[in-house]
Amino acid sequence: MTVLETRPDTTATLRFPAGFRWGTATAAYQIEGAAAEDGRTPSIWDTFSRTPGKVRNGDTGDIAADHYHRLSEDVALMRRLGVTDYRFSIAWPRVQPTGRGPAVQKGLDFYRRLTDELREAGIRPVATLYHWDLPQELEDAGGWPQRETAYRFAEYAGIAAEALGDRVATWTTLNEPWCAAFLGYGNGVHAPGRTSAVDALRAAHHFNLGHGLAVQALRAALPEPSEVSLTLNLHVVRAHSDAPEDVDAARRIDAVGNRVFLDPVFHGRLPQDLVADTAGVTDWSFVQDGDLRTASAPVDSLGINYYSPAEVAAGSSESPSPWAGAERHVRFVDLPGPRTAMDWPVDANGLHELLVRLRDELPGVPLVVTENGAAYDDYADPSGQVKDPERVAYLHAHLAAVRRAIEDGADVRGYFLWSLLDNFEWAYGYSKRFGIVHVDFATQRRTLKDSARWYADVIARGGLTA
């Protein structure tokens, strides 16, 4: 199977730097299936999705896109698209089913096969250690609000690095710890479904600690040169007006949405305004001496996931909320303009805004857009084609924003489109499609959408048509 044919380059292009990494991304629970095969045990998402009322239509990831059995087919699709990199996640309960003790070799063998086939296809493997699938046994012991989970995560990181370090050059410790902490433990719309502001804040701290401990474990196990990273879904939060109370509302969300991770990981400190804002929730006594030094272990890059911005004003929002008490002072403002099938506003300027902010706040830290994409209600027409012009327009605008940020001095090294495949979209089940490859979940048939052909063309050109 060859790379898709592309049109002759007869137009000017908005070119990206030489060596720019063109990738796509997935997550284990969303695509793998094989939920009880080869020693894999339940994760918190298995438990959550099987709980009535938690996931739309009662959907689960038991089969998902059946990637576990269709690995070669999916790697061949990536090869056709011409991607240079593939970002996938390792399922913790497939590798270390109880979150403790030795690895299951059959689980590791799956990732050995995946990375070997990627390398044979000329695609660089990028591994994420945690994309939300905590082994259920660790959640039963208290989950991420408990300090012990951070140490278990570091042990697992070392196991994965020992097994795959000769195949994987780039390692990401955590994906979107904000979602895992504040949606999982704060307002309960994600697994494990708890609704406790203090548990959300405890989990956030232990994600930071676990990240730092995992960086240490990775550095100890990986050969040189290896890249160690972290991926955050940082929030672009704009004040509704220049009024002091609206500006303060934006500050509150920035503290609990962004700086709760940025400050410990990159500056070795807690955001003191967040500590003050949450004094009625916790005294932060779970932060022990040395934790912030551990959390701030140097990384080689920062991954950024971006989908849409938010606008806030003084007021109040519904509770339970993921904002750890900030909702008592903040009202989210509906934004005008087009929206995706997730009802998220489309605003590519937010991605430029975020990358330029990080250029200024984290000088010397290379950036990678590790997720960006959109869900739309696309489908295979009677001829078998999947036309998704809204997604193409979304992707074009956001890649143009990335290029503009590079021109403005942001050190952006790559772009990973979310997602390769239609998949299990967490609490939305199979009702939302983010993929550039359509999946018929009844037959598991894969069909390239127009956006896939468009992305292949972008990669072949090394940039966008003007």
From TrEMBL:
The record's listing under InterPro entries reads: GH, GH_1_N_CS, Glyco_hydro_1, Glyco_hydro_1_AS, Glyco_hydro_1_beta-glucosidase
Please name the PANTHER family in this protein's record. Answer: GLYCOSYL HYDROLASE, LP05116P
User: Which species?
Assistant: Streptomyces roseicoloratus
Q: What is its EC number?
A: 3.2.1.21
Q: Mind telling me which SUPFAM superfamilies this protein's record contains?
A: (Trans)glycosidases (SSF51445)
Q: Which UniProt keywords apply?
A: Carbohydrate metabolism, Cellulose degradation, Glycosidase, Hydrolase, Polysaccharide degradation
Q: Which GO terms describe its molecular function?
A: beta-glucosidase activity
Q: If you read the UniProt record, what top EC class would you report for this enzyme, in one word? A: hydrolase
Provide the protein name.
Answer: Beta-glucosidase
* Catalytic activity as recorded in UniProt: Hydrolysis of terminal, non-reducing beta-D-glucosyl residues with release of beta-D-glucose
Q: Which family does it belong to?
A: Belongs to the glycosyl hydrolase 1 family.
Establish whether keyword Hydrolase is in the entry. Answer: yes
| Entry superkingdom | Bacteria
Enzyme active site? 371
Q: Does the keyword Hydrolase apply?
A: yes
